[in-house]
Amino acid sequence: MESLVSIIVPVYNAGAYIEETIRMVCRQTWGSWELLLVDDCSRDESRAVIESYCEKDKRIRLIAKENNEGAALARNTGLEHAGGRYIAFLDADDVWLPEKLEKELAFMRRKSAAFVFTAYEFGDENARGTGKVVSVPEQLTYREALSRTVIFTSTVMFDLEKIGKELIRMPDVASEDTATWWKILRNGYTAYGLNQVLAIYRRPARSLSSNKFLAVRRIWNLYRKEEKLLLPECLRYFAGWACRAVLRRI
């Protein structure tokens, strides 16, 4: 459908959040959407909650995987089932403001873009904004993106009339989302940033320091194994990435 947005949500033991996630999508001011909830073999009540909402609203669909394969492959499964012209990713524990889809879609059409993303705010464990806002540039090319992981998964949107599903499919690697954005940009696309906070990234305080060294290792592996950059290039881009990562959390 011309204006339909397919929202893809990987779900794994998301019982603490999934009902609010569904209600949040239902409150969107843009009403032409389908919500594809890909259950990755949850062991909690997530599937039962989703099934109850599927009965109430035909726009909500449960896609139940037979094997647990992780968020990247769950998103790919959702992509295979998507029927909309536009694709939006949402993680089950993140928050969208009510006008997120409407404003981002208008921005995408205004820019005639294939790939857009928005600013966002860090939230606490209850998704209350902390005041730490990540602003985004007007546009981002491949080389620019290598030194700034500013694109947040729950803010992206794609136009399938301008970009194929195959290019959006995520590799099964650590930091699969960043690897995907780089792959798309490497293929000649430009990502356009709407510098308006339309999402909240839920980050419990205890996870910030514990994930720091893991993030460093993941970004370095992407440079070397996915992008196959030479060592001097890795060091140059890594230095820019590290500076921006620190500033983003201050």
* Poorly predicted ranges: none
| Helical residue percent band | 40-55%
SSE arrangement, N to C: EHEHEHEEHEEEHEHHEHHH
Structural class, judged by helices and strands?
alpha/beta
Q: What fraction of residues sit in β-strands?
A: 15-25%
Mean pLDDT: 93
Overview of the structural elements:
- By secondary structure, the chain is an alpha/beta fold.
- 40% of the residues lie in helices and 23% in strands.
- The chain has helices at residues 18-26, 46-54, 71-81, 100-111, 142-145, 165-168, 176-186, 205-210, 212-226, 231-249; strands at 5-11, 33-39, 60-64, 86-89, 95-96, 115-123, 129-134, 139-140, 157-159, 191-202.
- Strands 1, 2, 3, 4, 5, 6, 7, 8, 9 and 10 form a ten-stranded mixed beta sheet that branches.
- Helix 1 (18-26) links the parallel strand 1 (5-11) and strand 2.
- The mean pLDDT is 93.
Helix and strand layout, with pairings?
Blueprint: E1 5-11, H1 18-26, E2 33-39, H2 46-54, E3 60-64, H3 71-81, E4 86-89, E5 95-96, H4 100-111, E6 115-123, E7 129-134, E8 139-140, H5 142-145, E9 157-159, H6 165-168, H7 176-186, E10 191-202, H8 205-210, H9 212-226, H10 231-249
Parallel strand pairs: 1-2, 1-4, 2-3, 6-10
Antiparallel strand pairs: 4-9, 5-10, 6-7, 6-9, 8-10
